[in-house]
Amino acid sequence: MCKAKKKAQKVAPPADGVEGGASLREKQTMPRQLDGVLVSKTAAKPGASRCRPNLQNPNGWLSTSSNRTARKDAPGRPITSTTGIQLMHVGIDVSKAHLDVHVHETGLAFRVSNDHAGIEKLISQISGLTLERIVLEATGQYENEAFVALSLHRLPVAVVNPRSTRNFARATNRLAKTDQVDAACLAEFAALLKPRITPLPDAEAVELDYLVTRRKQLVDQLVQEKNRRAGPAVLRLGPDSRAKRSVEEHIAWLEKAIAEFDEQIRQCIESSPAWKQKDELLQSVPGVGPGTSAKLLAHLPELGTLDRKQIAALAGLAPYNADSGLRNMPRHIRGGRATVRTALYMATVAAIKCNPVLREFRRRLLSAGKAGQVALTACMRKLLTILNAMIRDNRLWADVTNP
């Protein structure tokens, strides 16, 4: 016992100003520190948020939400406005039957039905919050009723691409997937990445979009019926066959319906002075007809408001590199709106024959050794750039080629 006391007395206290020795001794004696900042039970005030320690793999993403469940005790990172009021971020997972809602800052989670009564209940529960952003996924039109109702109540709603949120879930190491977990993931996605608010389109724009989309569906059915009529099974049938007459009658009905939709689309465009002016500008370009113009007006309303790189990326015509180390891969286009890209493809096929600018541009690319499809894609991008500049500057094709 005496020897132990003597050894303890021989240990001198650290000298003032010796920082190296102090930090070394702290490294050797102090236990492993947690990454989070804990609030002691004695110092914490009622209702104060407690930050959980980060005991995850250091190579993983530090997430405020659980990987398995949508925890209701995770406060997340508090975000306050300039007035000191905490701003809330809400994620809504959409399905055909119900909506799962999660508030990122408070952990509030609940489910309502995806109908008028359920959406009214949703609005009543979140209308008292100071909302900065509500995030929904584009889920095949099932989100439309909720998006319209929330937007009409002047709530900030962002409709995002499901691919982006799925990649965000993988990046935050969420292995489980349920409706509640997806709602919590969307709420955290809103708080961290802050996607752009989606504007509510007017009734005329929605009507034009539906008309153009329905016309395309009828055209696809017409192609199927004509292929069926030219197939060997129908060709073997006699002229009095009921099946053969049914195919012929359906083809005639489809052609008549498509013509009626063409007239309705024309009247819809002419009823709007802004659309009528844009339609005249677009159709002044050789190769762009009424069908292409209507598709661009319906499916690419941003035409004329973005720069050439942004509009190309939105249409899925921007070339992206895929290099790594010493490997240099060819550039490829990806993403974007397929309906716009399809319309531009058919217009470009006609334009490289009748449009002198695009014809010369394609010839120059082919002379430089570019593949035919690569040159055609470049012409599509150039045509889109020209159309975007014409709408932006309000100039006809004749004014562009003859300044």
List the SSEs and their pairings.
Elements: H1 2-10, H2 19-29, E1 88-94, E2 98-103, E3 109-113, H3 116-126, E4 131-137, H4 144-152, E5 157-160, H5 162-171, H6 179-193, H7 203-229, H8 232-235, H9 242-270, H10 273-283, H11 290-299, H12 308-314, E6 319-320, E7 332-333, H13 338-354, H14 356-367, H15 372-393, H16 397-401
Parallel strand pairs: 1-4, 4-5
Antiparallel strand pairs: 1-2, 2-3, 6-7
Helix pairs in contact: 3-4, 7-9, 7-11, 10-11, 11-13, 13-14, 13-15, 14-15
Could you provide a short overview of the structure?
52% of the residues lie in helices and 8% in strands. The chain is α/β, with parallel strands linked by helices.
Notes on the protein architecture:
This protein has helices at residues 2-10, 19-29, 116-126, 144-152, 162-171, 179-193, 203-229, 232-235, 242-270, 273-283, 290-299, 308-314, 338-354, 356-367, 372-393, 397-401; strands spanning 88-94, 98-103, 109-113, 131-137, 157-160, 319-320, 332-333. With 403 residues, the chain is α/β, with parallel strands linked by helices. The chain folds into 3 domains: 88-193, ATPase, nucleotide binding domain (Nucleotidyltransferase, domain 5); 205-271; 272-403, no CATH class. It is globular, with a radius of gyration of 31 Å. The N and C termini lie far apart (103 Å). Residues 4-8, 10-44 and 48-78 have low confidence and may be disordered.
